[in-house]
């Protein structure tokens, strides 16, 4: 067997292992190139080169070339393992591209695991909701940071204060507030939606975080377990202290998202999500 054939076998195996690492993602829109996964594929390819050559030394008689392959594979293993663990080449957008498939795995396993205990099911549902929210936020940030909008300061809550349990229950951490998924029936308690209602989903599988009338003059969101009615002006919806602005992506749209929503609190955080905006009856 030739050394060229051996090299092509290792290269093919490395590429296949890189692709296989994406098979446990939940949805196609969660597929992003990941530097970390690429480095790990090289680590595994280098390991395979050492193991396979060690088992097949009888088929490869060039001692000098064998030593070079062993040394090169060990050096590649060490270098790419260092790149994985140091993350020295990973920027903010690269970090998020790696995290989205990672979060997607958590959604897949949490949703499909055969869970019987109600406590574990509650934990899994909380993980699903959190991962979907963060995926949508990261899609927005990848585009925003990639466009050069780098932010140095963000809203932070006041320092902790001493008090009672009742004080803790009454106090909301504003920095952690974000719109929660809202069912149509719940939104209908504060706004008359009609059959042509519009909605923004952070992911196709979850309930919308914004419901709006087809005319865009009213809407509803769920904030800290409170259904909040919103006044609308086209694709901007607001209540005293907070607003939601929807922008359709147009030429920027793809199979991952077709719109973005920015949630902005006057005395609190500003956070954006990329997801899906649609109007009319929900598909069955």
TrEMBL record:
What are the residue boundaries of the DUF305 domain, all occurrences included?
94-153
Q: Provide the protein name.
A: DUF305 domain-containing protein
Q: Pfam families annotated for this entry?
A: DUF305
Give the signal peptide as a residue range, or say none if absent: none
- Bilayer-spanning residue ranges: 6-26, 38-59, 65-84
Keywords linked to the UniProt accession:
Membrane, Transmembrane, Transmembrane helix
């Amino acid at each position: 067997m030739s050394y060229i054939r051996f090299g092509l076998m290792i290269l093919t195996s490395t590429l296949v292992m890189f692709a296989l690492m994406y098979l446990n993602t939940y949805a196609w829109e969660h597929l992003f190139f990941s530097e970390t996964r690429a480095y790990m594929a090289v680590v595994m390819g280098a390991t395979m080169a050492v193991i396979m050559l060690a088992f097949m030394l009888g088929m490869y008689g060039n001692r000098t070339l064998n030593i070079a392959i062993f040394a090169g594979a060990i050096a590649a293993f060490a270098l790419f393992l260092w790149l994985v663990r140091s993350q020295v080449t990973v920027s903010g957008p690269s970090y998020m591209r790696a995290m989205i498939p990672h979060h997607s795995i958590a959604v897949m396993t949490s949703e499909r695991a055969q869970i019987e205990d109600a406590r574990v099911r509650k934990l899994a549902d909380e993980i699903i909701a959190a991962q979907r929210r963060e995926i949508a936020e990261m899609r927005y940030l990848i585009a925003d940071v990639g466009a050069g909008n780098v932010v140095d300061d963000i809203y932070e809550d006041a320092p902790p204060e001493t008090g009672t349990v009742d004080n803790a229950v009454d106090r909301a951490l504003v920095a952690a507030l974000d719109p929660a998924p809202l069912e149509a029936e719940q939104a209908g308690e504060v706004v008359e939606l009609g059959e042509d209602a519009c909605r923004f989903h952070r992911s196709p599988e979850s309930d919308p975080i914004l419901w709006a009338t087809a005319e865009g003059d009213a809407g509803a969101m769920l904030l800290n377990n409170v259904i909040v009615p919103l006044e609308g002006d086209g694709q901007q919806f607001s209540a005293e202290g907070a607003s939601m602005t929807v922008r359709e992506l147009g030429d920027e749209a793809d199979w991952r998202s077709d719109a973005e929503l920015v949630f902005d609190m006057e005395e609190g955080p500003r956070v954006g999500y990329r997801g899906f905006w649609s109007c009319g009856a929900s598909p069955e």
